[in-house]
Each structure stands twice: as structure tokens, then as C-alpha cells.
Design brief:
The structure is a single chain. By secondary structure, the protein is of the alpha/beta class. It contains 13 helices and eleven strands. Strand 1, helix 1 and strand 2 form a beta-alpha-beta unit. Helix 10 runs antiparallel to helix 11 and helix 11 packs antiparallel against helix 13. The protein is globular and about 55 Å long.
Length: 308
């Protein structure tokens, strides 16, 4: 029986991580697995609690990072541990994911049977009962501008069309690009060959990086319709809505610049112009919101880092 690695990234989500692990244990029967829980230096000490909780469980290994390394950096700890133990397939699950059936086995079947497929993902229902899986190409300069707030309000259909493919939620879908990063599986050989995941982005746009890598290598993504999960979105980043918006903007606005420059082939000059406009907007926001004023220096520093 194939043995796979299942990597779960924990950040202040002790209870949700337990539910996620329990759902894996309940439903996953078609493959053998080892679960790697990576605690991303949670300040609520949930990492230490998880170590105690699973210290006698041979199917679960808990690794605690000394600092918060973001989505890619945190997951890479688990990926490297899995590769060192010789596992040929790796599944990355957010801690707020709950399996509804033997989703891992269903995805694994498709991953093994299709040589041109490097990444698989399930059907996803969010906490509001909405279908939340997507299929999209990597961000480009055109799609970036068309999805900016003002332009998107004027041409929403065009913006959405540039960022997402339309597909039937009741059928399997194979495409060029990347699917929702809350739950997906990939081949260890693909990870090793292309040095996934890129740790130069702390959060957001990781899916776009993979989409560009997939396009460059001619590999496909596969949405497995019969594999079912629930995704309780955003648990790890929920504070007050206002603080969350600031946090989201800080990393979304800077991570996209890195992806445009590094993977989409946009010139450094254009990226710097986008950065300048974003810094000006951040400064305007700081005039009425002290939180933006307090983080202005950090925002400028992060812009400089991703544009090196």
C-alpha cells in the first residue's frame, strides 16, 4: 500500500488541528500515511500542547519551529522531514480543513495514474456552505490590474475570467494552473526538481507561484470531484476584521510584486511603479488609521525586500 505524507501547518489553532487529524484518521483507509504537524511558533503555546497530545502516536510527528516562517517556510519543514523519510507523495492541509470522505486516497489514485499530473486537489465546501475550489492560471500583469479594486468594480466579469477557469463542480477537471492551496497533494519528485515551496513570500500568492511553475514544466493540476473536504477559511488569521484587513494587505500587496517580477516576467521598473503607488495608498490610509501609520515602515521594508 502506498504511504503518503500529510503535512498540517498549525498557528494558534490547537482545537482545529485536532479536528483535522481526527478526520484524517476517521476516513483515510485506502493509503498508508504519516502526519507531520508543523507548529509555526504559535504564541498561544499550542505547539507544545500538540507535542504532548501526540507523543505516543506513531502516525503523527509534531515539529515546532523556533519562529513563524509563513506558509511556505512552515510547510517546507514538514516537506523536508517527509522527503528525508523517503515518502514519494506529500499532501498539504490547512489546520482548518476537515475531511468528509477518504479524500486523500481518491486524490492519490488520480495522482498515481496520470503521469502529466503533478498536483491534485479535492472538492471544497467552505464554512458558509459554498463551493470553494478554484482553478486558475498564475497572476500576470494584466490580470493583476484587472483585479484591482476600482477596475474590477467596473469590469468584474473580465477580471474574474482572467483569474479563474470555469468548470463543473460535479466532474473531474484537469487544467494548466493551480487549485486552492488549503488542501492539495503533489509528487515528491516534482518538489525536489523545482524546489517548492518558495520561501520568499511569507503569505499569499503561493498558488500563483506553483501555477507558473506548472506552466513552465508542462504539468497539470487535477480537481478530483469525488474527494470532499470542508474548509473553515481564515481561522489562523482571524483577529478583528480591521486588523485582519491590514495584515492581508501587507502581504498580498508585497507578495504579488515578487511573483510578478520572479515568475511572470514583469520588469523591475514596472514592479517598482506598482510598489510606489501601493506605498502612497498605505500612507493615505495611515492618515485616518493609526495601525497603518505604525506599520508603514514595515510595509516599505517588505516592498524593498521582495524587489531586490
Amino acid at each position: 500500500m502506498t504511504k503518503v505524507a500529510i503535512v498540517i501547518l498549525n498557528y494558534n489553532t490547537f482545537d482545529d488541528t485536532l479536528v483535522c487529524v481526527d478526520s484524517i484518521k476517521k476516513f483515510t483507509t485506502g493509503v498508508s500515511y504519516k502526519i507531520y504537524i508543523i507548529d509555526n511558533a504559535s504564541p498561544d503555546m499550542s505547539g507544545e500542547q500538540l507535542v504532548i497530545r501526540y507523543k505516543d502516536d506513531p502516525d503523527v510527528k509534531v515539529l515546532v519551529s523556533e519562529n513563524n516562517r509563513g506558509f511556505s517556510g512552515g510547510n517546507n519543514i514538514g516537506i523536508r522531514a517527509a522527503l528525508e523519510e523517503g515518502l514519494q507523495y506529500v499532501y498539504l492541509l490547512n489546520s482548518d480543513v476537515i475531511l468528509e470522505n477518504d479524500a486523500v486516497s481518491l486524490m492519490q489514485e488520480k495522482l498515481e495514474l496520470n503521469d502529466d499530473v503533478a498536483i491534485v486537489g479535492p472538492s471544497i465546501i467552505n464554512s458558509r456552505g459554498e463551493y470553494a475550489q478554484f482553478a486558475r492560471p498564475g497572476v500576470t500583469l494584466m490580470s493583476y490590474f484587472m483585479c484591482r479594486r476600482l477596475i474590477f468594480m467596473l469590469c468584474p466579469r473580465l477580471g474574474k475570467g482572467l483569474r479563474h477557469y470555469e468548470f463543473s463542480h460535479n466532474e473531474d477537471f484537469v487544467f494548466d494552473g493551480m487549485l486552492n492551496g488549503c488542501c492539495f497533494g503533489l509528487k515528491s519528485s516534482f518538489i525536489q526538481e523545482h524546489e517548492c515551496l518558495d520561501e520568499n513570500v511569507f503569505m499569499y500568492y503561493e498558488e500563483d507561484i506553483l501555477a507558473h511553475i506548472m506552466k513552465k514544466t508542462g504539468k497539470k493540476s487535477f480537481v478530483v470531484s469525488k474527494a470532499k473536504i470542508i474548509h473553515n477559511e481564515g481561522i489562523a488569521t482571524k483577529n478583528s476584521s480591521e486588523n485582519r484587513l491590514l495584515f492581508t494587505r501587507l502581504y498580498r500587496w508585497t507578495s504579488v510584486l515578487y511573483v510578478l517580477k520572479k515568475y511572470a516576467g514583469v520588469s523591475l521598473f514596472i514592479c517598482k511603479m506598482i510598489s510606489l503607488l501601493n506605498v502612497i495608498e498605505w500612507w493615505v490610509l495611515s492618515l485616518r488609521n493609526p495601525a497603518y501609520k505604525e506599520t508603514l515602515a514595515k510595509f516599505i521594508s517588505e516592498n524593498r525586500r521582495v524587489l531586490k
